[in-house]
Amino acid sequence: xxxxxxxxxxxxxxxxxxxxxxxxxxxxxxxxxxxxxxxxxxxxxxxxxxxxxxxxxxxxxxxxxxxxxxxxxxxxxxxxxxxxxxxxxxxxxxxxxxxxxxxxxxxxxxxxxxxxxxxxxxxxxxxxxxxxxxxxxxxxxxxxxxxxxxxxxxxxxxxxxxxxxxxxxxxxxxxxxxxxxxxxxxxxxxxxxxxxxxxxxxxxxxxxxxxxxxxxxxxxxxxxxxxxxxxxxxxxxxxxxxxxxxxxxxxxxxxxxxxxxxxxxxxxxxxxxxxxxxxxxxxxxxxxxxxxxxxxxxxxxxxxxxxxxxxxxxxxxxxxxxxxxxxxxxxxxxxxxxxxxxxxxxxxxxxxxxx
Length: 355
Ligand code: GDP
Ligand code: ZN
What we know:
Helices cover 35% and strands 17% of the residues. The chain is of the alpha/beta class. The longest helix is centred in the C-terminal third of the chain and has 40 residues, at 277-316. The protein is globular and about 65 Å long. The chain binds guanosine-5'-diphosphate (GDP) and zinc ion (ZN).
């Protein structure tokens, strides 16, 4: 049973609770859990909760006041996707086409890696357009991992049942590049989708189904989330995260055989982690991107410390202070202290740049 269902089951009573399905401006559109067929309720966050810096995300279950339509509290969330921030997601459904557009292993690896690092359950790979090409050879290398692979045809509906079974009692986020058949899949799952999507599109003055806003759809016994953000890949990932079983399961499968605890499983002698050729290429690329991102982070931290250090110097050089025995002000003492802390964090002590 998925997270959102566990949360709903744990409520003493469904009355007065809603699931936030969309957010527009300051309005949190909640679906009344007691009456799911009713319209979405535009809820606002009262000043008290704003002052307490309470945040509400799509996917949150909130207790609300039906009289003034405000949020009273947020039921503790069980998971949170980082970008876009969506609460209580269980898994990702990564949609790829067997052909047209051709399946790109690197793109699939990125999405699998991102999903593995951000959602609690392993992602599902949904292969569309199997009527055009049955099963691309390149997908065979993924069969040994813990990812269910579900081939479907949106034209005939083949395979949709199995996918729905895997979605049951869960909240899943859809991911995949445009043209792979995500909209068609939504319509295969439920013909009402086109209607629902149409309604939202009209509101946002867009003629077609372009996913601009993160929104949740309840279908049968599951929730699906259509979001533009998930397929945009997250560059802010560290090497430690990439170099993990969650991101690349083969590290876990053969990891015990790797004798070195700090091994990056790239070209180290004696490393026994086995990647296929294309997976290794993706891993290498993602590790390199992570390294660059870490460098940039360190660089900007150093820059910040340097700017602060300059500020300190100019304060000290004010002629009036020269020779003065005045005690260090509380402010500059704090600045110096912060700077020292930062230097220590960066391991920059004794570095010429800072002296
Ligand atoms: P999206 O951009 O991911 O939402 O993709 P669409 O659902 O708009 O589909 C892109 C194109 O692929 C459309 O012309 C669909 O008719 C077609 N398509 C989607 N799924 C299938 C499928 O399973 N088989 C075939 N032959 N075509 C499909
Ligand atoms: Zn290794």
